[in-house]
Amino acid sequence: xxxxxxxxxxxxxxxxxxxxxxxxxxxxxxxxxxxxxxxxxxxxxxxxxxxxxxxxxxxxxxxxxxxxxxxxxxxxxxxxxxxxxxxxxxxxxxxxxxxxxxxxxxxxxxxxxxxxxxxxxxxxxxxxxxxxxxxxxxxxxxxxxxxxxxxxxxxx
Length: 156
Prior knowledge:
The chain crosses the membrane at residues 6-25, 136-155. Keywords: Membrane, Transmembrane, Transmembrane helix. By secondary structure, the protein is mostly helical. The protein is built from five helices and two strands; from the N terminus they run H-H-E-E-H-H-H. 78% of the residues lie in helices and 7% in strands. Strands 1-2 form a two-stranded antiparallel sheet. The longest helix has 40 residues, at 92-131.
């Protein structure tokens, strides 16, 4: 199993780090809604939708969904990391089959990451607009990069 340490070890460490960062985002979201109850509705909507997208993104990190192991052979693996590191531990032929499951959730996962990034960067562009004395050049420069990055995410 030494050859799998670099791949599955990285998967485990990434899932743990993602969980820790998700916990930080949860605390920040809670603090925002308890400390700023009179904020404008669109700020609240931005924070709430970003948190929901981040929650779905975190679920997709550990969820594989339905996937084809072989033609006509369907499976449901609810926990990606668990399936990789516990259920199929020591079964190298099964570990290769589970890799197929990543393709199905990867696109959806990518889209939620793209939405989260887009909404946060649009908020940044709004702040640039306000802090630059409503400079359209500065704001347009930021928005061109934001939209270009989002189009790259949509393209795949």
